[in-house]
Predict the structure.
Amino acid sequence: MPASVASKVARRPVRQARQARAQATVEAIIQAAAQILAEAGWGALNTNLVARRAGVSVGSVYEYFPNKNAIVDAILDAHLRQGEALIAQGALRLVDRPDISEIVSLLVGGFISLHRDDPRLHRVLSSETPLSPEQRSRVERLRLAIIQMVAEALAPHVETPELRASLIVDVAESLSHRWLVDEAGTPASEAVMAAELHHMLEAYLRACPAP
Amino acid sequence: MPASVASKVARRPVRQARQARAQATVEAIIQAAAQILAEAGWGALNTNLVARRAGVSVGSVYEYFPNKNAIVDAILDAHLRQGEALIAQGALRLVDRPDISEIVSLLVGGFISLHRDDPRLHRVLSSETPLSPEQRSRVERLRLAIIQMVAEALAPHVETPELRASLIVDVAESLSHRWLVDEAGTPASEAVMAAELHHMLEAYLRACPAP
Amino acid sequence: MPASVASKVARRPVRQARQARAQATVEAIIQAAAQILAEAGWGALNTNLVARRAGVSVGSVYEYFPNKNAIVDAILDAHLRQGEALIAQGALRLVDRPDISEIVSLLVGGFISLHRDDPRLHRVLSSETPLSPEQRSRVERLRLAIIQMVAEALAPHVETPELRASLIVDVAESLSHRWLVDEAGTPASEAVMAAELHHMLEAYLRACPAP
Amino acid sequence: MPASVASKVARRPVRQARQARAQATVEAIIQAAAQILAEAGWGALNTNLVARRAGVSVGSVYEYFPNKNAIVDAILDAHLRQGEALIAQGALRLVDRPDISEIVSLLVGGFISLHRDDPRLHRVLSSETPLSPEQRSRVERLRLAIIQMVAEALAPHVETPELRASLIVDVAESLSHRWLVDEAGTPASEAVMAAELHHMLEAYLRACPAP
DNA sequence: GATGAATGAGCTTTCATTCAT
DNA sequence: CATGAATGAAAGCTCATTCAT
């Protein structure tokens, strides 16, 4: 076996190994930053700490992120991607024309499962982190996409579906956020609260429209 | 955050401002800080800037506030006091046993008027400012007081009034916050949205209880 | 003597003392920076070192200079002011219509005395320090002012005085810079070189103009 | 400058580039560095950028240059070699005993053509780049060689040829540098300025010696 | 009481250099 | 030989806080 061929064959894994290492570094940085954010808040997030926690040098942080904010961007990105994935799932289930109760279940269940994931990080992200205009608009676009989707599902059942979709999506999001992320006190268990929320939204959707 | 002792310092004015001039100084400091917060966000708030904007020296700021955080505390205080004043008003009106529609009107109207006041400051306070545990609990206590009040008003009309009060208060607060403070896009005018919100809460309260 | 009057009278010195202290700080910073520049070059100039050498804290440096470059600006400023002062002096002497030899003496003597002052700092400033466009244009303006002044003095004696002034000013500046600042090797003593320079410029001015 | 050892390292290519490919790499590095220097100045020159612009890896840069400074050394080297080549040419022409006017023409023409080549790089090299003592002395040696050469050519025509050579070489170099490299404002076109410079140097050489 | 100059810990960011692959 | 990920010392700059006047 000629050496030149051997080395070419052998070299490919080397490249991949390098990319894998770099990928691992990026991952470690994001994980470390998310941890710090969740545990100690936005005020405690600094690039040196991130680097130390990630087990890399500050230089490496700046190798992959142009500045501190970009790290938070990446974390938010992951979260928004989760939300977008959930939409994709929901859209799939909304294809077979669910009734009102099913729509509400999907909505409430979706937001609750979304907010159950790392609530502390979620809280810091939503109540301490200064979002850039781009980030804000991306969050807003996601919200509108959800509302649009729900409106289409509601169309066969109610009047002014967009209006109602807007209300129920915001309500479902807000209350589940409040209960799970803000850990606001509730007079009953989470399951009961969720059921009551479902009850409220369904009552609203089934009521005759406002004059 | 260079001052490692800052957070250990008590959050109480160093000296009570008794004289009128001193009161004016305190007021100027709070106003300046609120302005900066509203215009440029938490990240731009620093004691030297506050002092300059207030037309006093940094030294004077520290004469009345033990540390930077105490200034924000004072701002939050003013806001919470507004909320508390609104409760007092509401309690007054709830004395003469209003019906469901009147209760909902009072609730929705109250939160909307509350959120209409300096929404930018409100946003910074609720989504960028790191609140101390004491501040959080104070906000939470206010919320619970409102819920309690509404629950008592609802008692003659519905079952599980505490549960329902909890839901409608949170919904009214969340949606009005979203529309007015976060300036989230809405499919209709503010008046229509408010009416729809009213409609939703009333439908929920009039529906037979969940099984 | 009423106490209120006494304190007002006494307070003025306090204010002045403060301003004096601040002035001393500024002076110390500039001196320290100039020293570092002269001794160790542009590459060794950093704000922390400047602060230490000036016997103040970094914070104080930034209290008076918005950034590192501004310190160098201030140093350059002082140098340019020296040059401008020399022009003023020269202009004074050129009033009583000197002859060619006197003009050349004034010019050569002026540049030599200018370049004799802290040549090491001068060298760093002219051959290591990256000047901003504003700084460059200010230096250029000074040069043109000198040329203009010399041209006016030459007008009664030669043709194309602007052209000749431009040449002789640049030559006088360049050679004295080279000898005193760059410490370039010379085949004779400084006095001889200066005399020879004088000789050259005078020979040029007295020669009949180029065709 | 993070590398405290850098200045202690020898300024000699780590390995002699013997193969054609290696030679091309070295060339690319030097070209890239020169470009950056000319376009963005000394402050923008950094090894990673040089590597990227040269289309090689940083590692390769350090394969051929022991440190950043060595790259600048190489650039300066090329420039000095140009100057040396010009001397060789000049020496050739000075063999057949030119008269004063021819000597001056050769000198002025030589410096002007030298300074016309990449003036921006030339400027950065002469007014931003911190030269090492070795580099300074090499430049100085080149200058002395030129002076020596001119002195020999002048010997048959004037007294104190070394002294006069020193003056006219420095003047020719300085003024052409000022006009072409520093882009200093001139009251006439470049050709006129050059003619005037010639005129000045010739007048000086033909004048009777200073007493 | 009021002032504001001074402080300095701590943060973000850069970049020359190394070395495992 | 070449690569480029990783390093980390060091620089620029901010700002909460103090204290002499």
Remarks:
- The two ends of chain C are 85 Å apart (CA to CA).
- Chains C and B do not touch (no CB pair under 8 Å).
- Residues 1-15 of chain C have pLDDT under 50 and may be disordered.
